Protein backbone atom coordinates (compact mmCIF):
# COMPACT_ATOMS: atom_id res chain seq x y z
CA UNK A 1 0.00 0.00 0.00
CA UNK A 2 2.84 2.38 0.87
CA UNK A 3 4.48 1.80 -2.52
CA UNK A 4 1.24 2.57 -4.38
CA UNK A 5 0.77 5.79 -2.41
CA UNK A 6 4.37 6.84 -3.01
CA UNK A 7 4.09 6.20 -6.73
CA UNK A 8 0.85 8.20 -6.99
CA UNK A 9 2.36 11.15 -5.11
CA UNK A 10 5.47 11.10 -7.28
CA UNK A 11 3.44 10.93 -10.50
CA UNK A 12 1.25 13.79 -9.31
CA UNK A 13 4.36 15.88 -8.66
CA UNK A 14 5.77 15.10 -12.11
CA UNK A 15 2.46 16.06 -13.73
CA UNK A 16 1.38 19.10 -11.71
CA UNK A 17 4.31 20.21 -9.55
CA UNK A 18 4.02 21.07 -5.85
CA UNK A 19 1.58 24.00 -6.09
CA UNK A 20 -1.51 21.91 -5.39
CA UNK A 21 0.10 19.83 -2.63
CA UNK A 22 -0.92 20.25 0.98
CA UNK A 23 2.01 20.99 3.34
CA UNK A 24 1.97 17.46 4.77
CA UNK A 25 2.13 16.01 1.24
CA UNK A 26 5.19 18.12 0.40
CA UNK A 27 6.84 16.83 3.55
CA UNK A 28 5.76 13.25 2.82
CA UNK A 29 7.33 13.42 -0.64
CA UNK A 30 10.62 14.68 0.79
CA UNK A 31 10.64 12.06 3.55
CA UNK A 32 10.38 9.27 0.96
CA UNK A 33 14.10 9.77 0.28
CA UNK A 34 15.33 9.33 3.85
CA UNK A 35 12.69 6.83 5.03
CA UNK A 36 12.45 4.30 2.20
CA UNK A 37 10.20 1.58 3.60
CA UNK A 38 7.70 3.18 6.01
CA UNK A 39 4.54 5.26 5.77
CA UNK A 40 5.64 8.90 6.15
CA UNK A 41 2.15 10.44 6.35
CA UNK A 42 1.83 10.26 10.13
CA UNK A 43 5.33 11.59 10.69
CA UNK A 44 4.72 14.48 8.29
CA UNK A 45 1.61 15.49 10.25
CA UNK A 46 3.49 15.17 13.55
CA UNK A 47 6.32 17.40 12.37
CA UNK A 48 3.93 20.06 11.08
CA UNK A 49 1.99 19.95 14.34
CA UNK A 50 5.17 20.41 16.38
CA UNK A 51 6.80 23.15 14.30
CA UNK A 52 3.73 24.87 12.86
CA UNK A 53 4.66 25.06 9.18
CA UNK A 54 6.92 23.67 6.48
CA UNK A 55 9.40 26.48 7.04
CA UNK A 56 9.31 25.77 10.77
CA UNK A 57 10.19 22.13 10.12
CA UNK A 58 13.03 23.02 7.75
CA UNK A 59 14.44 25.62 10.15
CA UNK A 60 14.31 23.38 13.22
CA UNK A 61 17.52 22.44 15.00
CA UNK A 62 18.74 19.07 13.60
CA UNK A 63 19.46 17.87 17.15
CA UNK A 64 15.88 18.68 18.13
CA UNK A 65 14.53 16.96 15.03
CA UNK A 66 16.51 13.79 15.68
CA UNK A 67 14.84 13.40 19.09
CA UNK A 68 11.47 12.79 17.41
CA UNK A 69 10.52 9.14 17.04
CA UNK A 70 10.94 8.09 13.41
CA UNK A 71 13.35 10.91 12.56
CA UNK A 72 16.87 9.55 12.27
CA UNK A 73 20.09 11.38 11.56
CA UNK A 74 19.61 11.17 7.78
CA UNK A 75 16.12 12.64 7.95
CA UNK A 76 17.19 15.48 10.26
CA UNK A 77 20.08 16.21 7.91
CA UNK A 78 17.83 16.21 4.83
CA UNK A 79 15.25 18.55 6.36
CA UNK A 80 17.91 20.96 7.62
CA UNK A 81 19.54 21.02 4.20
CA UNK A 82 16.49 22.59 2.51
CA UNK A 83 16.90 26.26 3.64
CA UNK A 84 20.60 26.36 2.78
CA UNK A 85 20.00 24.59 -0.51
CA UNK A 86 17.28 27.14 -1.32
CA UNK A 87 19.65 30.00 -0.51
CA UNK A 88 22.32 28.60 -2.83
CA UNK A 89 19.70 28.13 -5.57
CA UNK A 90 18.33 31.69 -5.34
CA UNK A 91 21.81 33.21 -5.16
CA UNK A 92 23.07 31.09 -8.06
CA UNK A 93 20.22 32.38 -10.26
CA UNK A 94 21.91 35.78 -10.23
CA UNK A 95 24.85 34.33 -12.13
CA UNK A 96 28.44 35.52 -11.95
CA UNK A 97 29.05 39.21 -11.18
CA UNK A 98 25.44 40.47 -11.33
CA UNK A 99 25.05 44.20 -11.92
CA UNK A 100 23.31 45.92 -9.01
CA UNK A 101 22.53 49.23 -10.70
CA UNK A 102 19.37 50.04 -8.74
CA UNK A 103 18.08 49.83 -5.18
CA UNK A 104 15.49 47.30 -6.34
CA UNK A 105 18.14 44.94 -7.71
CA UNK A 106 20.30 45.45 -4.62
CA UNK A 107 17.36 44.63 -2.36
CA UNK A 108 16.40 41.53 -4.31
CA UNK A 109 19.99 40.32 -4.36
CA UNK A 110 20.27 40.86 -0.59
CA UNK A 111 17.08 38.86 -0.02
CA UNK A 112 18.70 35.91 -1.82
CA UNK A 113 21.70 36.08 0.55
CA UNK A 114 19.51 35.67 3.63
CA UNK A 115 17.01 33.04 2.42
CA UNK A 116 16.50 30.45 5.15
CA UNK A 117 18.59 32.22 7.80
CA UNK A 118 16.93 32.25 11.25
CA UNK A 119 19.70 34.25 12.94
CA UNK A 120 21.20 37.66 12.33
CA UNK A 121 24.01 37.96 9.81
CA UNK A 122 25.86 40.80 8.13
CA UNK A 123 27.19 40.92 4.56
CA UNK A 124 29.37 43.37 2.70
CA UNK A 125 28.66 43.30 -1.04
CA UNK A 126 31.75 44.49 -2.91
CA UNK A 127 31.14 46.17 -6.27
CA UNK A 128 33.43 47.12 -9.12
CA UNK A 129 33.29 50.44 -11.00
CA UNK A 130 30.33 49.17 -13.10
CA UNK A 131 28.33 48.21 -9.98
CA UNK A 132 28.92 44.52 -10.67
CA UNK A 133 29.41 42.21 -7.70
CA UNK A 134 33.03 41.24 -7.13
CA UNK A 135 32.20 39.25 -4.03
CA UNK A 136 29.64 39.08 -1.22
CA UNK A 137 31.34 38.32 2.07
CA UNK A 138 29.57 37.10 5.18
CA UNK A 139 31.27 39.25 7.81
CA UNK A 140 29.36 38.20 10.89
CA UNK A 141 26.83 35.63 12.08
CA UNK A 142 25.12 36.15 15.41
CA UNK A 143 22.11 35.27 17.47
CA UNK A 144 18.75 36.88 16.83
CA UNK A 145 18.84 40.65 17.49
CA UNK A 146 22.62 40.64 17.94
CA UNK A 147 24.98 41.36 15.06
CA UNK A 148 27.94 43.44 16.19
CA UNK A 149 29.82 44.69 13.14
CA UNK A 150 33.46 45.69 13.31
CA UNK A 151 34.50 48.39 10.81
CA UNK A 152 38.04 46.94 10.59
CA UNK A 153 36.65 43.63 9.24
CA UNK A 154 34.58 45.48 6.65
CA UNK A 155 37.51 47.62 5.55
CA UNK A 156 39.68 44.51 5.20
CA UNK A 157 36.97 42.72 3.18
CA UNK A 158 36.46 45.70 0.87
CA UNK A 159 40.20 45.95 0.19
CA UNK A 160 40.58 42.18 -0.22
CA UNK A 161 37.85 42.05 -2.87
CA UNK A 162 38.99 45.23 -4.67
CA UNK A 163 35.77 47.10 -4.04
CA UNK A 164 35.13 50.37 -5.82
CA UNK A 165 32.00 50.77 -3.70
CA UNK A 166 30.02 48.55 -1.34
CA UNK A 167 26.50 47.72 -0.24
CA UNK A 168 25.93 46.70 3.37
CA UNK A 169 23.25 44.11 4.12
CA UNK A 170 21.94 42.52 7.28
CA UNK A 171 18.72 40.83 8.34
CA UNK A 172 16.11 41.19 11.05
CA UNK A 173 14.84 37.60 11.42
CA UNK A 174 11.34 37.67 12.84
CA UNK A 175 11.55 41.42 13.40
CA UNK A 176 10.72 44.72 11.73
CA UNK A 177 12.06 45.97 8.42
CA UNK A 178 12.57 49.45 9.84
CA UNK A 179 16.16 50.39 10.77
CA UNK A 180 16.83 50.70 14.49
CA UNK A 181 18.85 53.49 16.07
CA UNK A 182 21.72 50.99 16.34
CA UNK A 183 21.43 50.23 12.60
CA UNK A 184 21.68 53.94 11.78
CA UNK A 185 24.66 54.47 14.08
CA UNK A 186 26.44 51.40 12.71
CA UNK A 187 25.86 52.61 9.15
CA UNK A 188 27.37 56.01 10.02
CA UNK A 189 30.44 54.41 11.61
CA UNK A 190 30.99 52.03 8.69
CA UNK A 191 30.53 54.80 6.10
CA UNK A 192 33.15 56.93 7.82
CA UNK A 193 35.60 54.02 8.05
CA UNK A 194 35.24 53.00 4.40
CA UNK A 195 35.12 56.48 2.93
CA UNK A 196 38.37 57.29 4.73
CA UNK A 197 39.98 54.90 2.24
CA UNK A 198 37.90 56.24 -0.69
CA UNK A 199 35.38 53.38 -0.82
CA UNK A 200 31.80 54.64 -0.94
CA UNK A 201 28.90 52.91 0.81
CA UNK A 202 26.05 53.28 -1.69
CA UNK A 203 23.32 51.47 0.26
CA UNK A 204 22.46 49.54 3.38
CA UNK A 205 19.81 46.86 2.93
CA UNK A 206 17.80 45.35 5.79
CA UNK A 207 16.11 42.03 4.99
CA UNK A 208 13.17 40.52 6.84
CA UNK A 209 11.70 37.38 5.28
CA UNK A 210 11.27 38.01 1.58
CA UNK A 211 11.11 41.82 1.96
CA UNK A 212 13.78 44.46 2.22
CA UNK A 213 14.35 48.05 3.32
CA UNK A 214 16.85 50.15 1.38
CA UNK A 215 18.50 53.17 3.04
CA UNK A 216 19.20 54.64 -0.40
CA UNK A 217 15.67 54.08 -1.68
CA UNK A 218 14.33 55.88 1.38
CA UNK A 219 16.77 58.78 1.15
CA UNK A 220 18.68 57.88 4.29
CA UNK A 221 22.23 57.28 3.04
CA UNK A 222 23.25 60.93 3.04
CA UNK A 223 21.46 61.56 6.34
CA UNK A 224 23.45 58.90 8.24
CA UNK A 225 26.71 60.65 7.41
CA UNK A 226 25.88 63.71 9.47
Task: Describe the structure in brief.
The protein has two domains: 88 residues, no CATH class; 130 residues, Cytidine Deaminase, domain 2 (3-Layer(aba) Sandwich), CATH 3.40.140.
Notable characteristics:
226 residues, alpha+beta, Cytidine Deaminase, domain 2, 2 domains, five-stranded mixed beta sheet, 9 helices, 5 strands, 45% helix, 16% strand
Q: Overview of this structure, please?
A:
This protein is an alpha+beta fold and 226 residues long. The protein folds into two domains: 2-89, no CATH class; 96-225, Cytidine Deaminase, domain 2 (3-Layer(aba) Sandwich), CATH 3.40.140.10. It has helices at 2-16, 23-31, 41-51, 54-58, 62-65, 73-92, 103-114, 151-160, 181-195, and strands spanning 121-127, 133-141, 165-171, 200-208, 211-214. It has a five-stranded mixed sheet with strand order 2-1-3-4-5. β3 (165-171), α9 (181-195) and β4 form a beta-alpha-beta unit. It is elongated, with a radius of gyration of 21 Å.
Helix and strand string, N-terminal first? HHHHHHHEEHEHEE
- Major β-sheet, in short? 5 strands, mixed
Number of helices: 9
Question: How much helicity do the residues have?
Answer: 40-55%
Q: How many E-type strands?
A: 5
Task: Return Rg in Å.
Answer: 21 Å
Q: Which secondary-structure class do the elements indicate? A: alpha+beta
CATH class of the largest domain: Alpha Beta
Which strands sit side by side, in order, in the main sheet? 2-1-3-4-5
Instruction: List the domain count as a whole number.
Output: 2
Q: Report low-confidence residues grouped into runs of 5 or more.
A: none
Q: What is the CATH topology descriptor of the largest domain?
A: Cytidine Deaminase, domain 2
Amino acid sequence: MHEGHRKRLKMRFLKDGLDSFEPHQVLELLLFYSIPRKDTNELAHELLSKYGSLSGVFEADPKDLSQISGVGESTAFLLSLIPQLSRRYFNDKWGEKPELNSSTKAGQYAVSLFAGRTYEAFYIICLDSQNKVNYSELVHEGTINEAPVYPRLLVEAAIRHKANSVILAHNHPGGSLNPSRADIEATRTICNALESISIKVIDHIIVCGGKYYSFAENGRMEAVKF
